[in-house]
Specification:
Shape: globular
Bound molecules: zinc ion
CATH class of the largest domain: Alpha Beta
Order of helices and strands: EEHHEHEEHEHEHEEHHEH
Number of strands: 10
């Protein structure tokens, strides 16, 4: 009899081998297999190709703030279904499913935070909730957060990730574009700073309203940022689009974005910008049209 013997255990029906789930993950861009803990420790950026993995509100809070929300705003604001919208499913059923899966009531969280010692009002959109789409709740929470920043004379930072206006709320979603832009105009008229951070993807009604209205428009590397998607534009104009069209780097070159910042440098950059902009509040930021 040998020292070693293969022991083959037969699994009973319904029994599974106990392999911990999600220890490793694959980079969407380069295919590298990465240890999840390592990815988390490096701002969810691929160590091989620099691809920025999509992250949600808790991760951004951990990355950019000193200690999360000091006070979170409108915690209990819930979406309604003003149109009784049904496609392949009822909108109300979709909402319930998303709320259970994400533990959020809608696609944005807002509140007061501290960034490098600077009191700031922060809003973060979460793509995992119905594609970060902007319906009445997202618009209202952004508008209220902006007003709170204006009233307290605090700077505002919005981190966007969104497919655009929420089609299930129709015209009520489109109304949010004007409302959020109007509040930002008031914020600007009060001589206060607003920094917009656009992550992958920031498109549609969110780009057409608050995401592009920053005193400084920041983008993460490689993010898709635009109004209509590249496929729609290509089909409409019937022409091939240039290489890298609607990506952060292309937009920086063409003046739509002011700076591209890797996530690992985001907090440091926000602190530098806040330092400059707060120093100018009440004078330089009132110049020009909103
Ligand atoms: Zn990669």
């Amino acid at each position: 009899m040998g020292w070693f013997r293969k022991v083959r255990r037969t699994l009973g029906s319904g029994e599974r081998l106990d392999v911990p789930k999600g220890l490793w993950t694959k980079c969407d861009k380069c295919g590298e297999i990465i240890y999840r803990k390592e990815l988390e420790a490096h701002f969810h950026i691929c160590s091989k190709c620099g691809h920025h993995f999509r992250i949600g509100v808790p991760e951004y809070l951990a990355i950019v703030t000193d200690s999360g929300f000091v006070e979170e705003f409108d915690l209990r604001m819930k979406p309604k279904d003003p149109l009784g919208f049904v496609d392949s499913k009822k909108y109300t059923d979709r909402l319930k499913k998303q709320q259970r899966a994400t533990k959020m009531l809608d696609a944005v969280r807002t509140g007061e935070v501290v960034i490098g010692g600077y009191r700031t009002v922060l809003a973060v959109l979460d793509f995992s909730f119905l594609g970060g789409s902007m319906g009445s709740v997202v618009g209202e929470k952004i508008a209220r957060a902006t007003r709170s920043a204006t009233e307290q004379r605090l700077p505002l930072v919005i981190i966007s990730a969104s497919g655009g206006a929420r089609m299930q709320e129709g015209i009520f979603s489109l109304m949010q574009l004007a409302k959020t832009s109007g509040r930002l105009a008031e914020h600007r008229q009060a001589g206060l700073a607003y920094i917009s951070v656009m992550t992958h993807p920031t498109t549609g009604g969110v780009t057409a309203s608050f995401a592009m209205l920053g005193d400084v428009n920041v983008a993460e590397p490689g993010a898709l940022i635009g109004f209509a998607g590249p496929r729609v534009i290509k089909e409409t104009i019937g022409e091939e689009l240039p290489e890298g069209f609607q990506r952060s780097e292309f937009l920086l070159e063409h003046g739509f974005v002011d700076i591209i910042v890797p996530r690992s440098e985001l907090k440091k950059t926000l602190i530098t910008l806040l330092n400059h902009l707060i120093g100018e509040q009440g004078s330089a930021t009132t110049a020009g049209s909103p």
